[in-house]
Amino acid sequence: MKHTRRILSFVLALVMVFALCAPALADRSYEPYKYYMCVGDSIAAGCALTKDGSETYFDQETDDYTTVYNPDYIYYGYDYTAVPTAYHSLVANALDAKLLQYARSGLRAVEFRYFLEGVYNDYDTTRSWGNTYFDTDGNGTFTLSDLDAIDAMVNYKEAVKKTDVISVNVGSNDVFSFTLGVVLNEMTADDNNDTLKGLKDFLNKGGNIGEAFGKLVDYCQKMGKMPKLAALITATFAKAYDQFEENYDVVMEKIHELNPDITVVAVGVFNPFKHFRLSDGSMLDISGLAAPIVNRINLHLKALSYKYDNFYYADVVGTETYDMNYNDRYFWEYFGLKVHPTLAGHEFMAQQILGVLPERGTLPFTDVPSDAWYYDDLYYAWFNGLIKGTSETTFEPDAATTRAQAVTVLYRIAGSPNVSGLTEPFYDVSDSHWARDAIVWAYENAIIKGYNSTTFGPDDGLTRSQFVAIMHRYAGSPQVSGDLAVFSDSADIPSYFRNSVRWAVANNIVNGYADGTFRPNTVISRAQLAAILARFDRL
After folding, report:
1. CA 491, CA 473: separation in Å to the nearest integer?
2. C-alpha span between 238 and 296 (Å, rounded)
3. Which of 33, 186, 221, 400 has the most CB within a 10 Å radius?
């Protein structure tokens, strides 16, 4: 149902590549995705924003900078919390979709691949720092059991199967954070050097990796080792990129295997060091060293749009991050936070993601007017595969719905479960009846009842009150209270359907007619069926 609009999307992507800023997207109408899944690292998680969505300021005058690091103030992105001003929330709100927030600080393509495939392809699992993001048991050592504990809590595979559109934002940790850890490991290997030994001890005791790197830069500049440091960074960037590309490609293959109809937005990377300012005399241009790798990552992500349907690349190179100056009071302590987007940065990223998604199309049915009261609900139900037309170009919105048709729709939505071995209870439903499996499934799950123990009436018209009752049972028969007096003919609603109607009204699943009636005994039309299905699915 989710049609690819390749030409439109390609044009939009080109526009975003060359634009200096993202366009206003408030007037765009998007496809009615039910679930939006955000996967990524601390950038996607909203790290360095506050939990309440307000701006984070790092220039506070305080002698106790731990106040700024208070987890109640700054969000670090480990607990899958939805941050109201992070791009994951902004995108979900714009799409009017339910957010599946699966971004986590430290996430790389390496870990995401493990969650989807069970393979951990990391060329260096022995380093002391970097994987501590995933030390979930707090024992100071990273093992795959730490990842298993995380996945057991959220289950990435099932979320991918469930979602309609997913944004994937990994790469920064794969290449940049990872490189810092590797460089620190290798440069501090000399145990005979007191300075390097002290730096290694600092890291082993949980010292800030940014602060450690800053001390390493100072040491290398003092000792004339800056060329060696720059060469090691460049070599590690390249090595880390190769690993990233391999893992990322497998991730995309697994996503499409799990959910062939999924819409994917590959979120590019920006240069996290673009505001990185070392002392004037430093020979280390880490921003310049990172730039070619940023371009390489983004070019690869763009290329994947030609491999998969419904695959889009979002260019976020222009994302605003916090300014960094080597002479700032707490430069290195804040370094790990300041490489993240600001509020404006998250708004920009949301705009870039939304800008590449296709605009909402139109229904293919020639017998459905664009101004019909049910148009939006029908479009939602059709787009999400809840209902089909009577042909490629017709829907027959005013046609009556039979009991067998209604049950079959729910059966398909449930995934058409296997009912082999189950006995058909109704004499008027033969083993060869086209809706036999659906009726058996609905009966076994207490979703439907017959007129009696032997008669179902598959070809009879289904009334509005009957369908509401079926939907209520399908939802698990939740308890609800409410007044049916809003309908002038409420007295005509049979007593055994009244709780179901109350539930449907309370959840805005059904409405009455313009004259204030409910008409419980009127056979439900296909248009009404589609509207109820759409409203129920949005709950």
Report:
1. 22
2. 10
3. 33
Return all residues near 449 (Cβ < 8 A) that are at least 6 apart: 443
Sign of CA dihedral 109, 112, 118, 123: positive
Beta bridge partners of 30: 359
Q: In whole angstroms, what is the distance from residue 410 CA to residue 220 CA?
A: 67
For 39-87, the DSSP string reads: EESHHHHTTTSBTTSPPP-S----S-GGGTT-TTTB--S-S----TTSH
Asked if 241 and 123 count as a contact pair (C-beta separation under 8 A), the reply is no
Nearest to 489 by CA among 469, 519, 529, 448: 519
CB 290 within 8 A of CB 176: yes
Contact predicate 527/397, CB 8 Å: yes
* Residue 478 pLDDT greater than 80, yes or no: yes
Instruction: Sketch the domain layout of the chain as residue ranges.
Output: 6-356, 375-537
CB 96 within 8 A of CB 166: no
Residue 5: per-residue pLDDT: 35
Q: What is the distance between the alpha carbons of residues 465 and 501, in angstroms, rounded to a whole number?
A: 7
b/e sequence 436-465, b meaning 16+ C-beta within 10 Å: bbbbbbbbeeebbebeeeeebebebbbbbb
Q: Which helix H or strand E contains 187, and what residues bound it?
A: helix 178-187
* pLDDT surpassing 70 at residue 409: yes
Question: 84-105, pLDDT tens digit by residue?
Answer: 999 999 999 999 999 999 999 9
pTM of the model: 0.85
Given a contact cutoff of 8 angstroms between Cβ atoms, the answer to whether 41 and 105 are in contact is yes
Flag the least confident range among 128-142, 154-168, 204-218, 374-388. Answer: 128-142
Fold annotation for 6-356: Rossmann fold (3.40.50)
